[in-house]
From TrEMBL:
The name this protein goes by in its record: Flagellar protein FlgN
GO BP annotations, alphabetical order: bacterial-type flagellum assembly
Keywords: Bacterial flagellum biogenesis
Source organism of the structure: Calditerricola satsumensis
Length: 164
């Protein structure tokens, strides 16, 4: 049981490391405007998410098995609680270290995804501004300035759903 839990934690770490690399590559692609690279990274992210779904199913089965073995309530048990029930001190220490590493990795991934979300929001704002200019020009509006330096463009409703 202990070795299965440790193996599962290692595989979670591997997938999250891959996700962090993807997030870092995504940021670089966004900054360069490299859409081909961005699409490649998104495909790799999807594969990671699929692997996480598989690991999650495996985790649920392992948690149920461990809870039966150690007499714990499966619906409310956390990974930390499971680790505390590992009888061998060396295995428990290794699982605790892997859990801490996973927590730190998740924090880094969350931060990187936040940066990418900001970059995407900026890119979306730029695209919407460009579309507004094009839409105004198509309607025959002045895409430069009106007399006295005021903008001649009229507001255009958003083409994109901004919900993130």
């Amino acid at each position: 049981m202990e070795s299965q839990l440790i193996d599962l934690l290692r595989r979670y770490l591997d997938v999250h490391r891959d996700l962090l690399r993807c997030a870092e590559e995504k940021r670089a692609a966004l900054l360069r405007g490299d859409l081909a690279r961005l699409q490649d990274v998104v495909q790799r992210e999807r594969a990671c998410v699929q692997r996480l779904a598989e690991l999650e199913a495996e985790r649920a089965a392992l948690v149920a098995k461990a809870c039966r073995r150690w007499g714990l309530a499966a619906e409310s048990v956390t990974l930390s609680e499971l680790v505390r029930h590992i009888p061998k001190p060396e295995a428990r220490a290794e699982a605790e270290a892997l859990g801490r590493e996973l927590g730190a990795l998740l924090s880094r991934l969350k931060r990187e995804n936040g940066h990418n979300q900001e970059l995407l929001a900026d890119a979306l704002a730029h695209v919407e501004a460009s579309l507004a200019l094009l839409a105004d020009a198509r309607r025959g509006g002045d895409v430069t300035y009106a007399p006295a330096g005021r903008s001649g463009a009229t507001p255009v409703s958003s083409v994109f759903d901004q919900k993130v």
